[in-house]
DNA sequence: CATTCGTGGTT
DNA sequence: TAACCAAGAAT
């Protein structure tokens, strides 16, 4: 039953569904409308890595307003890009975004093939396929979390992820049509995002309800299977929020790699499960706050104790003048710390 | 192949 | 509420 013509018919049915139900998104070209802008496709796809559409919208608008094309972004200062990305998470994306923009600007534009795209920083298997298909109309197959789920269900494959990835890739490739590959890629992802959802899939209104093997077996809601993740440990740390008598804030640029790499933040201790020791950035009358910041990262919970101090005008360190300081330029954890400490420091 | 890397919404 | 999840990439 699953011969080539069956697959191409499925693709056609999905595209027909997409033409009727496609969501309106800022980076999306209307089906059969104008041509896609590779810069906007690339920027949106990087922002959407492990990030919800709702969270991306605002950032996409600000980035494209401030830097309308890849040349403008390539000429931006690192600190400005990091500040604009602050709050969106996974900051290696912002660092790679700038590296990629500069490489692309130097090359005179984005490469058009998946292989060449994937040589660029921050562009992996998924994003290279997405750009090639959506921006350059190449018949590449995207495999994101949505497509993994849809394929596991259509073919009722119970192999747990991530081991199932190669098989699911194969299924997805068989279904990818030669016509309108960009629309098709977005259609499968839309299907996963709106109908073939993780918990309560709306199988009754699914354009692929006919051929779906998991729906026939009643196994759809439990697919895809995933190998269980390790529990998150709790780490502890201390952050020091210092403010000079002229209102300037003591901040530091974090090292360019690792957690929150390249972002602006409050100086502090390392974060560990035990062995916490006070390590103030400079001697002062540091006062402990009652309330601590609780924040959860991908692989651990953090409980961050805060110390605040008013510092003399001649205190050493990197101070940001109050007029230049915007808590929105900080990653969320550091924003939370500021929110708790601000009233204690006359802000 | 396993781990690291954010954050906010949903269940 | 704790767990799960999101248009993943780099190491």
Automatic annotation (TrEMBL):
Gene3D superfamilies: Helix-hairpin-Helix base-excision DNA repair enzymes (C-terminal) (1.10.1670.10), Hypothetical protein, domain 2 (1.10.340.30), Nucleoside Triphosphate Pyrophosphohydrolase (3.90.79.10). The keyword Iron-sulfur applies. CDD domains: ENDO3c, NUDIX_DNA_Glycosylase_C-MutY. SMART domains: ENDO3c (SM00478). Its cofactor is [4Fe-4S] cluster. It holds the Pfam family HhH-GPD. Its EC number is 3.2.2.31. The keyword DNA repair applies. This is Adenine DNA glycosylase.
């Amino acid at each position: 039953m699953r011969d080539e013509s069956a697959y191409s018919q499925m693709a056609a049915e999905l595209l027909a569904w997409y033409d009727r139900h496609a969501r309106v998104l800022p980076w999306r070209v209307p089906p059969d409308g104008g041509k896609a802008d590779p810069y906007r496709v690339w920027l949106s796809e990087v922002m959407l890595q492990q990030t919800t559409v709702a969270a991306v919208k605002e950032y996409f608008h600000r980035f494209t307003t401030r830097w309308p094309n890849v040349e403008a972004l390539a000429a931006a200062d690192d600190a400005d890009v990091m500040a604009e990305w602050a709050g969106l998470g996974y900051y290696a994306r912002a660092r790679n975004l700038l590296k990629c923009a500069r490489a692309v600007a130097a090359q005179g534009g984005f490469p058009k093939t998946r292989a060449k795209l994937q040589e660029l920083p921050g562009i992996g298997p998924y994003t290279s396929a997405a750009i090639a298909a959506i921006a350059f109309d190449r018949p590449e197959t995207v495999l994101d979390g949505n497509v993994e789920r849809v394929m596991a269900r259509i073919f009722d494959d119970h192999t747990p992820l991530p081991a199932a990835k190669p098989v699911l890739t194969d299924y997805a490739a068989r279904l990818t049509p030669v016509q309108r590959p960009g629309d098709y890629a977005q259609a499968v992802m839309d299907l996963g995002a709106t109908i073939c959802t993780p918990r309560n899939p709306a199988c009754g209104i699914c354009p692929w309800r006919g051929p779906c093997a998991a729906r026939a077996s009643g196994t759809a809601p439990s697919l895809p299977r995933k190998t269980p993740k390790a529990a998150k440990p709790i780490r502890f740390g201390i952050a020091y929020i210092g403010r000079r008598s002229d209102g300037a804030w003591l901040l530091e640029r974090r090292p360019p790699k690792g957690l929150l790499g390249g972002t602006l933040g409050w100086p502090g201790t390392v974060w560990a499960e035990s062995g916490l020791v006070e390590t103030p950035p400079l001697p002062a009358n540091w006062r402990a706050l009652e309330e601590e910041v609780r924040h959860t990262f991908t692989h651990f919970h953090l409980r961050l104790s805060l110390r605040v101090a008013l510092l003399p005008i001649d205190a050493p360190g990197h101070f940001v003048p109050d007029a230049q300081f915007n808590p929105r330029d900080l990653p969320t954890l550091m924003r939370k710390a500021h929110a708790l400490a601000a009233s204690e420091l006359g802000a």
